[in-house]
Write a structure and sequence with these properties.
Helix content of chain B: under 10%
CATH topology of the largest domain in chain B: Alpha-Beta Plaits
Order of helices and strands of chain A: HHHHHHHHH
Radius of gyration of chain B: 14 Å
CATH superfamily of the largest domain in chain A: Alpha-helical ferredoxin
Structural class of chain B: mainly beta
Number of strands of chain A: 0
Structural class of chain A: mainly alpha
Number of strands of chain B: 7
Strand content of chain B: 25-35%
Radius of gyration of chain A: 18 Å
CATH architecture of the largest domain in chain B: 2-Layer Sandwich
Shape of chain A: globular
Largest interface: B-C, 33 and 32 residues
Distance between the termini of chain A: 49 Å
Strand content of chain A: under 5%
Shape of chain B: globular
Number of domains of chain B: 2
Distance between the termini of chain B: 32 Å
Oligomer: heterotrimer
Chains: A mainly alpha, B mainly beta, C alpha/beta
Number of domains of chain A: 2
Order of helices and strands of chain B: EHEEHEEEE
Largest sheet of chain B: 3 strands, antiparallel
Largest sheet of chain A: none
CATH class of the largest domain in chain B: Alpha Beta
């Protein structure tokens, strides 16, 4: 299992997972870790076992904000945020993304850049909302008004 | 013909003042350049005595044989033993000949 | 100068007629008897009977050197040597040649070939014997005093060991009193004893001894000289109090108006609450500018820190009943001679303020484990205390290594804390609990306490909470759950790093440090060494360790120092001698000596410090003009051995290998190959050398020029060489020679370096066999006649 793992992923992220001692510092500092059942430490643990599929299907993967808090604090120097990005790529290539709707935001983002060369936040929000199941647009509309009040939308 | 220095091998003899090739050259032609590598200051004055080749501890110096005798392909290489010198002579056609001499002066 | 004619007696000792079974001894004797100046050449089956006649012949000057062939037991060798030295024969005038270790007697080899090989081996050794000279050991005068730098637990124990052996000691300490870091600890586990008790025990011995001079507030200014004769200068700061008069009555302290300000800790009101204020108070020390020696009151004289004195204040002068305050004192210098130096400069705690995520130095209730020891004297009422292990340790951004004691220390602190505050809730955040040996009991004890919770997970930040508490957020990796805690006090178990004193001494004495700044030479076999002869190290300046390990290490250093404190140092005549007429100051011997034993003399020639020299021969190996020879193993002698080999002794096509084997590892591999009966091919002759690095390129060139097909240089593996890097030096040199061989149209593989460990006998035989195959494929050496 290990060899196929190395072939798929960018070679300088996966070998690093074996030096992780599972100290948990990344998870403790991660701002989004406890929104999902998994934490960055758990994902690295899956990789240490060679369970690439489990790692790529982890719900944590799509919550990662790439804030780099984990990477900066890791005592072994493991580049956790780049491992997460690599895993996202793998998940997308292998069709392991679950559920599919996680990708909708990213797909909309890329398509908008391809078409217009820039992002309009209003259009982005609406387009993403329309791709999701009916309940979401309602939550999004509430959020939309909140952001408008705070002057976050132009 | 002037000696040719292998710049990777030459380690400037780590000396403070004079490198071994500089000390032994009878014509005072060898010295160190700004990068601290040995070079021959006046190639036209070189007598081909090969003292520098024999003295270099790293084997970084080689003499270029004059074109009348063989030029690039030809080589003359001494190997210093404790009381012997063994010469290997390679001519322009690639033929190899070897000569060995006892050099009693080295060990006394 | 008249040259002595070398007259040799050769005696082949064939106990039990073993050699006679493998080789034709008569042919050997006949061949040898024809050689000029071989006076006697015979086979002995017994030693006791012929010895008197040998002695007789020696005393009547029939021969002046003897050459023994065969296998001798250590007892037999000793008997021979003592018998003959009573007749006046110098022990360096014998040679011993063991034919069997070179492969004679191996099954399956033709007897004719073996006889030829035996003859060559004997001729090799004979060539060397002819050049032997009588040698005497040197006696150099030495001072039997030693300098100990650092008076912590290691320094004190080393001092008491040495004064117990009646050796004078100079103990130098930079603080005003002895004791070091151990004196600031609260209690030790398992006897729950005060560390000062053990220190006081040693101080008592020092107080009563007149063999020791203790200099506090002193630093070493310079150290020159060589082992046995070091010249030391120390600089003593002024105490401003007379050591003769002050009797520590304390009257001055009562009137002193100046209090030494506490170290900077954050006083921002947002972070102060009742608990953190109490913590700050516990850590405060109200030391006055004039105070007793710290950490422990030996010497008993008080000391004044003048930088805190108000200008023109003379209260202490007026108050002192003994008139002991002397504000005009200036610093002084002392010079003395010692035979050896022991460095016991100890450790410093890692600066935890560098681990910025934990807020040390920002929040007053985040403290280090060392400060916790002070707090435990009289802890404030705390409800929730957290300990973070591996804070700044095992971390590539801070200390890479594990400091080995912090887990046990934190557990001990929890134990004491629970005794004083039984209702306190303790959390221990760990990555691994490292409690080796009998400390496991400590771990089990703490685990069984109430209200002590172990969390396997490293918190990533410490944030301020309500009421001056601290908020910790961590993941418990064992259950995967998140933990959110609010603590009154956080103790960071910081690591140990080499002390500031260690770095200063390393600079001053040019001592090599390892990657982490600790002194290290050869951890396994010589943990007390420092790569400079005569300077030894003990205690935590060598590496993180606990108190009993420090004490053991300091006793080891004291033992190893004794040979230098003997009034005379005996130097075996195996040291290198430099021929100044040949030397042209290229400095290579100085650069490559692993122990920096060469210094420049007045004329710019290298001059050897005999007491520093380890007699490895690396200088002999590197000298491009072969101007250096070891006294008992000269270049001429080795060259004579090499040139006596007959490379066509089996046949012109059969290759002959000359192996230079280092006597620490490779030689034993070859010797045990024969003992185990492995089939060593007869094509190989070996010469034993002190270190692979002592093989000079000229000798290898000789071997090739005289027709030997392959030269094998065998030494230690990287990092294992007894002389630090002899194997690497010879690898580079033989590489250079191989390049030259290539230009000369000779296969560069005819010279090679291999590493052999001491039991690698199978590897040795494989190596030789495969080398023979390669040489057969290459064809004979073009120089073979």
């Amino acid at each position: 299992m290990k060899e196929s793992v190395i072939k798929l992923i960018h070679t300088d992220t996966i070998p690093e997972s074996s030096i992780c001692v599972q100290c948990g510092k990344c998870s403790s500092g991660c701002p989004v870790a406890f929104e999902s059942e998994h934490s960055p430490r758990k994902v690295i643990r899956f990789l240490q076992w060679g369970c690439l599929k489990e790692a790529s299907q982890s719900p944590f993967l799509w919550l990662c904000a790439s804030c780099q808090a984990c990477t900066v604090r890791c005592p072994r120097g493991v580049n956790i945020s780049s491992i997460m990005l690599s895993l996202r790529r793998i998940a997308q290539q292998q069709g392991w993304v679950m559920p599919e709707e996680n990708l909708s935001y990213y797909k909309t983002f890329i398509n908008m850049i391809k078409k217009r060369g820039k992002i309009s936040e209003l259009r982005l929000g609406l387009a993403t909302a329309l791709h999701k199941i009916p309940s979401h647009p309602i939550e999004d509309i509430v959020l939309f008004f909140k952001l408008l009040k705070r002057g976050k939308l132009r | 013909m002037p000696p040719k220095i292998d710049r990777e091998k030459c380690d400037s003899c780590k000396a403070e003042k004079e490198s071994l090739c500089e000390q032994i050259c009878p014509g005072d032609l060898m010295t160190l350049d700004e990068d601290k590598k040995a070079y021959c200051r006046m190639p036209r004055d070189c007598w081909d005595c090969m003292s520098c080749v024999k003295a270099c501890p790293k084997g970084a110096i080689e003499t270029r044989i004059p074109y009348q005798l063989g030029y690039h392909v030809a080589k003359l290489i001494p190997m210093m033993g404790t009381n012997t010198i063994t010469w290997t002579c390679i001519d322009i056609n690639g033929k190899v000949e070897r000569f060995q001499y006892i050099n009693r002066g080295m060990l006394e | 100068m008249q040259k002595t004619v070398p007259k040799t007696g050769i005696f082949i000792f064939d106990q039990g007629k073993r050699l006679a079974r493998s080789i034709d001894l008569d042919a050997v004797i006949q061949r040898l008897a024809r050689i000029k100046n071989v006076i006697r050449c015979e086979v002995l089956t017994d030693l006791a009977a012929p010895l008197p006649s040998i002695k007789e012949d020696f005393t009547s000057d029939k021969f002046n050197r003897i050459f023994w062939v065969g296998k001798f037991s250590d007892y037999q060798k000793k008997t021979i040597q003592s018998e003959l030295s009573s007749a006046g024969l110098n022990p360096y005038m014998y040679e011993w040649c063991d034919l069997e270790e070179q492969g004679i007697g191996t099954k399956g080899v033709d007897s004719g070939i073996q006889t030829q090989k035996a003859i060559i081996l004997i001729q090799m050794t004979l060539a060397r014997t002819r050049l032997l000279e009588p040698l005497e050991p040197l006696e150099l005068p030495a001072v039997d005093a030693s300098l100990i730098i650092g008076a912590g637990v290691s320094g004190l124990h080393t001092a008491t060991s040495l004064i117990g052996l009646c050796k004078k000691v100079y103990l130098v300490e930079k603080e005003s009193g002895v004791g070091g870091k151990v004196a600031s600890l609260h209690r030790l586990y398992p006897r729950i004893c005060d560390p000062r008790c053990g220190l006081e025990f040693e101080i008592q011995k020092i107080r009563e001894s007149d063999m020791i001079e203790v200099h506090t507030l002193s630093r070493v200014k310079s150290l020159f000289g060589s082992p046995g004769n070091f010249d030391v200068r120390i600089e003593k700061q002024s105490r401003y109090v007379s050591e003769e008069k002050c009797n520590a009555c304390g009257e001055c302290m009562k009137v002193c108006p100046a209090v030494i300000p506490e170290e900077q800790r954050s006083r921002e009101s947002a972070f102060i609450n009742e608990t953190s204020q109490q913590v700050l108070n516990s850590l405060k020390s109200d030391k006055k500018a004039i105070h007793p020696a710290v950490p422990m009151t030996y010497p008993s004289t008080f000391v004044i820190e003048r930088q805190y004195c108000p200008p023109d204040c003379r209260e202490c002068v007026k108050a002192c009943p003994a008139l002991a305050v002397e504000l005009e004192q200036t610093s002084s210098e002392l010079a003395f001679k010692v035979g050896a130096v022991i460095i016991t400069t100890g450790w410093d705690p890692y600066q935890l303020s560098k681990v910025d995520e934990y807020g040390y130095g920002i929040y007053p209730n985040v403290i280090s484990n060392l400060e916790m020891e002070r707090l435990l004297e009289d802890p404030p009422v705390l409800k929730e205390i957290g300990f973070i292990q591996c804070a700044g340790s095992r971390d590539e951004r801070h200390l890479h290594y594990c400091s080995s004691v912090c887990c046990s220390v934190s557990l001990k602190q929890v134990l004491f804390l629970k005794e004083k505050l039984p209702d306190a809730l303790c959390y221990i955040f760990y990555q691994d609990m490292r409690t080796p040996g009998f400390d496991e009991e400590l771990y089990q004890k703490v685990k069984s306490l109430n209200n002590v919770i172990f969390i396997r997970g490293n918190p990533s930040t410490v944030k301020p909470g309500d009421n001056g508490k601290l908020r910790i957020h961590a993941e418990d990796t064992l259950s995967g759950k998140e933990i959110d805690l609010s603590l009154d006090l956080l103790v960071l178990a910081g690591g140990m790093m080499p002390s500031q004193g260690s770095f200063e001494i390393a600079q001053l004495l040019n001592l090599p440090q390892n990657n982490f700044g600790f002194f290290e030479s050869h951890l396994q076999c010589h943990p007390e060494e420092s790569q400079r002869t005569g300077i030894l190290v003990g205690g935590a300046c060598r590496g993180p360790m606990n108190i009993s390990q420090s004490i053991e290490s300091s006793h080891r250093a004291a033992m190893e120092v004794l040979p230098f404190l003997n009034r005379t140092i005996l130097i075996e005549p195996k040291y290198p001698v430099l021929d100044l007429t040949k030397c042209d100051k290229c400095k290579r011997c100085m650069e490559e000596c692993p122990f920096l034993s060469y210094v420049f003399d007045e004329n710019g020639f290298p001059s050897l410090d005999l007491t520093k020299c380890r007699q490895c021969g690396n200088c002999m190996g590197i000298c491009p003009l072969i101007a250096i020879s070891l006294r008992n193993n000269t270049i001429k002698q080795i060259a004579a051995q090499v040139q006596a080999i007959k490379p066509s002794f089996i046949s012109k096509e059969e290759p002959v290998i000359l192996a230079f084997l280092c006597e620490n590892d490779a030689y034993h591999a070859a010797q045990s190959a024969v003992e185990y009966g492995l089939p060593v091919p007869p094509n190989v002759f070996f010469i034993k050398v002190p270190c692979a690095g002592s093989v000079n390129n000229a000798l290898v060139a000789d071997a090739l020029a005289f027709g030997i097909d392959g030269v094998l240089i065998a030494g230690c593996k990287d990092g294992q060489c007894h002389y630090v890097k002899g194997n690497q030096l010879v690898k580079t040199r033989s590489g250079d020679l191989s390049d030259k061989l290539q230009k000369m149209m000779i296969d560069p593989q005819r010279v090679r370096f291999e590493s052999l460990e001491i039991r690698d006998s199978k590897k040795y035989v494989e190596l030789v066999k495969s080398y023979i195959e390669e040489l057969r494929a290459m064809g004979p050496n073009p120089f073979k006649s």
